[in-house]
Amino acid sequence: MTDEPLLRVRSISKFYGNRIGCSDISFDLWPGEVLAVVGESGSGKTTLLNCLSTRLLPTSGTVSYRMRDGAFHDLYRMSEAERRFLMRTDWGFVHQNPADGLRMTVSAGANVGERLMAVGDRHYGQIRAAATDWLGRVEIAEDRIDDQPRAFSGGMRQRLQIARNLVTGPRLVFMDEPTGGLDVSVQARLLDLLRGLVHELGLSAIVVTHDLAVARLLSHRMIVMKDGHVVESGLTDRVLDDPQAPYTQLLVSSILQV
Amino acid sequence: MATPLVVSEVAKSFTMHLQGGIRLPVVSGASFSLAAGACAVLGGPSGAGKSSILKMIYGSYAVDFGQIIVTHNDNLVDLAAADPRTVIAIRRDTIGYVSQFLRAVPRVPARDVVAEPLVARGEAAATARGRAEALLARLNLPERLWDLPPATFSGGEQQRVNIARGFITDHPILLLDEPTASLDKANREIVTAMIAEKKEAGVALLGIFHDQEVRDAVADRIIDVTDFAPDRHAA
Amino acid sequence: MTEIAQYNFAYLDEQTKRMIRRAILKAIAIPGYQVPFASREMPMPYGWGTGGVQVTASVIGPDDVLKVIDQGADDTTNAVSIRAFFQKVANVAVTTHTGDATIIQTRHRIPEERLKAGQVLVYQVPIPEPLRFLEPRETETRKMHALEEYGLMHVKLYEDIAQHGHIATTFAYPVKVEGRYVMDPSPTPKFDNPKMHMSAALQLFGAGREKRIYAIPPHTRVESLDFEDHPFEVQRFADPCALCGGTDVYLDEVILDDRGGRMFVCSDTDHCEGRRAEGHRGHLAGEAVGA
NCBIfam families attached here (chain A) (predicted)? Predict the structure, then answer.
């Protein structure tokens, strides 16, 4: 086990004019660790996710990532070409709306294969075999490989998006409300699948969610955000079982019991 | 042999921000240690803070004051001040925990729920499943249930899955929060025997047992939690 | 006053030509890169080759000999109109013989006869962006070109194989130019793709509506994209040309009657006529020539 984090976040702030997106956020993410960022709409959690995943330039602060050669690179000092390469090889990004992360008019197989082709894979048979394997791992029947995601249900689309991201064996995956628009029963299946894949592949992940049950099931550690600030952070079951900050107590006490 | 766990001057209170910030002290000045190969039992009436002490040692409750020193991979670590990553490592390698209720994950079969702590420590999945099956069989969980997720099991069945999950590893410290509460006599006796085997193996156990019979059978010493009552210290 | 005096030579004003020539020079300097240019309104509708016409108008001189083809033929509406246009506005010599031309403007074909050094082939391009149908955002496709992110191009070929069992794209087949830019060769049949590779002629591409010019300088590598296990192949025809008996040529289907009768003939009319003049005969040559 390595004794260095995978991602180092230092004093990240994002201001929209005078309005705070997120303010002065620092943490380390370790290999194999799943971090949940929770908070209500407008708390800045998606802004933070976008700043970390190079989708949004932060106003100040640094994010450095430990590349496969072991060296840390400041994401915002890399060239755009390097960042984009990182995004489609060593990283994944799972959008809340699968249509944002999939190509809706090309087949499921090509959606999964695209990242392989982007890194120079030029053997159709091997690409298709890899796509078939990944569809199986996200529980999509093999005979749907040539169907377009337009013909898929919401849950299937989300699973396809996950396969598309994981096919290149990324080390870090960002997820923005991955179970957001899904029915509860479909959510459970997806969460369980994600949980299994994260364990099996030893992925590090940063998951933005407003759903504490999702955080409980998937994450090791949590950050609770309110108005752009971190109000509490710690081990997931510690934060949920013994919340310290008034806002976290409010969140935890607002969960409906079934 | 090093003392596996030392609890020193630990205090804990809850601040209820939603109820105008009232502060509820739970324990204060809690000090004790565990010995390898022995089972200590937390004694005292309901609400005395027994569960809170277990949860602080497991890291799922914050510690306001004091130290919890754990011998983790031959190092002494203060769990009360450890970062989340260290707590996770301690849970993986050093401290096992049987909670009062199983927190079932949807869709994961009972066998895999039990095997998971071993798999997390790098054991091959097949070996871990074999060990899990042996434990479930010993706890008389019908074999037809092994492939099913425990969410729909009865209380007693869930608790046996939970016990198997806690006992499958050879953690040097094992915390037990009323493991026998919903078990019948035959299964209680099996758990009693399993605890005895853990002691035999040099594990330091700390438990809460409301069942007098089990407590008498397993306890090497009783730690009276009323000694740590905050009122007494305030007085 | 003669009719031609009402226009500047070759219709466009000299400033416009200079602007277009600068775009052409840039395009030649960066083979396969789409150079934006300020496309002008031309006295013909978009889709009739306004891009090609502007490029031709900017490079043509009084001594040039112009050939214009549409689908390989010199005698179809588009070819006849554009040829007449340049005769009128530039008073240049025109020809139908590939070997005699210095500038050949083309829609959808490359002549069968191997082009020589000194010749310029001007393509009319409807949609210059090869990534367009998979990535509609122009900002994104430009970035993909800049960063050489061409995985998406293979997604299209993957889809072909997944649906048809082979790469079914038969025209506008994407190529990589000099190992760098992926380029749409305009809707020429993929049969013509190998002719672009290391051609001795200068190849210029003009897209009037989309306002882009790109180029393949002489002796430039042009590779058709493919998969290792599904290599690039050109179309094969079962029979030779019914008129000239030519085999290694691109054929058009011609319907002969309303009872299913048909024949396959050279799409390149000049090539076909040349072969027949040399005495080559296909199996329907007698009837067709007589008809």
Answer: CP_lyasePhnK (TIGR02323)
